[in-house]
Structure formats: structure tokens, C-alpha cells
Amino acid sequence: MDDSQVPQVPLGIAADLDRKLDRANELLQRMLAEVAKTPSTHAIFVDAGYVYAAAGLLVTGTEDRRSFDLDAEGLIEAFIDKARTIFADSRLLRVYWYDGARRRIHTPEQQSIAELPDVKVRLGNLNANNQQKGVDSLIRSDLESLARHRAISDAALIGGDEDLVSAVEAAQGYGARVHLWGIEASDGRNQAEPLLWEVDSQRTFDLDFCKPYVTRRPVTLYEQEGPAPGREDVRFVGARIAATWLSERGRAALADLLPGHPYLPGSVDQDLLIEAERLLQYSLRGHADLRRALRDGFWQHLQSQY
Known about the structure:
By secondary structure, this protein is an alpha/beta fold. It has 12 helices and 9 strands. It has helices at 11-37, 48-60, 72-86, 108-114, 135-148, 165-173, 193-198, 207-210, 231-249, 251-257, 266-280, 288-304, and strands at residues 40-47, 68-70, 90-101, 119-126, 132-133, 154-158, 177-183, 201-205, 214-216. Helix 7 (193-198) links the parallel strand 7 and strand 8 (201-205). The chain is elongated and about 110 Å long.
């Protein structure tokens, strides 16, 4: 076929096509320029149970929350500062703090964390053995939802449970990069290997990083020279401490505490034990029956004042 037989596009239609192509190219260039100007976004996901156990064991030698205080505000700020360094061209969406609570009712400590700027507290349940339930599913739900809606490009995940693998895979499936942060283990590892295999990068915080934020609670040991106090004596001391607790904190704190009956938050229970031992000049450790009497007296007085 020679050139004379090739169909010719009318000049008007050709000009119109050229204009449309130019317009499409212009819009594409604008879109690419806008995307280039849009900062990437990261979020930090903290499994508080892992942080308490790992940091407590590393700094104080115990995972028992009642044996040490954790400066959650300072630690969260340290995590945010580290993220600013690592994700230098990215902005922080927020920090998600996952913890357990009985009936998913915030403890006073969790309330104070929830009031921090750029922090959202998400609660799973806490069973009778103080084991968290539902935390991993909350992490997966948030990670997957934020990644699916392109709300984050990077996620710093602080945890160690193998059940978090599905959360990592879900986020990665939508294009987000997941970076696993951990706390140094004094012996072996405190993060599951399958989790380490799935993430995009790993980082470990050592003793020097954690030490400023973990403080062992003072424990006074008393010589057991005389007979153990009676249950009624201990119950009376529990009520006496409750009266002081109520006068210092007020009825608003009482209303927050009552839904957790018969359980006390770990920090309140530890303070109750230490003050009772001071008043009795007798160690109640190893006396489960007396500690129950102490808590009974504490609760009985609080309930009588409600």
C-alpha cells in the first residue's frame, strides 16, 4: 500500500487529539509534582506488655510490673525522637500504645498515657492470670487499616510475639514497610524468629537506652521475729490505707477503680503492700491469705464510701 492509500486523519481531529494529549500530560505532571511534595508518614505501634516485660527484665532483672516503675511518657518521647532520626523525611501520624486492662477499663496509669499528645491507647482484655488477650488482633487491625488507606508508608513495630506476623504481612501487602524494634535480651532472644524474618528492618534498644526509664521500686524487708499478724489486724490496716488513698485521690479516682473489683491495678496493689508492711513492720510476702485480707479491707472501706 502506497502513501496515497493510507487513511488520513482530518486536521481538525488531529489538532483536537494533540490538545487532549497535551492536557493529559499536563495533568500527569501536576499529579507527579504533588505526590513528590507530599511527605511520607510513619506511625509507631507499641506492645506495652512486651516493653514492660523486656525492659523490666533487662534493667531490674524481673518482668513483674509491680516491682518497678516505667516512665512511659519519657520512653514514648524517646521512641518518637528515634523515629524522627530514622524517618528523616517523614511525619509522625501518632503512637499507638497497646496494653491490657480488666474489662478494658483504663487504669490511672493508662489514662495518663492516653492524655499524652500524639498517643492513642488501645486496650485488650486482661484475664485472671494477668495475661493480655486481644492485643495482637488490635495491632493487626490498625496496621492493616492504615496501610490499606495509604495513611502510613512506614510502621515501627515494638513487640516480639509470633502472632504479629500476620499483622506485618497484611501491612506489607498494601505497600507499607514494617520495621521491627526490640529491647535487648539479657539471654537469647525475646522476639520470635518468624517475626524477625518477615519485617523489612530490625533495630534493638540496649541497656543504656532503657535504663533512664525503668526504676526498681524500693522494697523494705522486715525481720520476722514475732508471730504473724491476724487477718483482722491486716484487714483493718487495709481499710486504713484505703481511707488515706481516698482522701489523697478523691472520688473520681474511686469511681475509676470500682469497676475492676475485686482486682486492683498492679501499681495500686504494690503500693498497698508496701504501705501495709511499713505499718505492720512485718513482711506479707509469702502470706497469700494475709494479702487477701489486706485487699479485702481496702475494698471494703472504698465500697462503703461510694
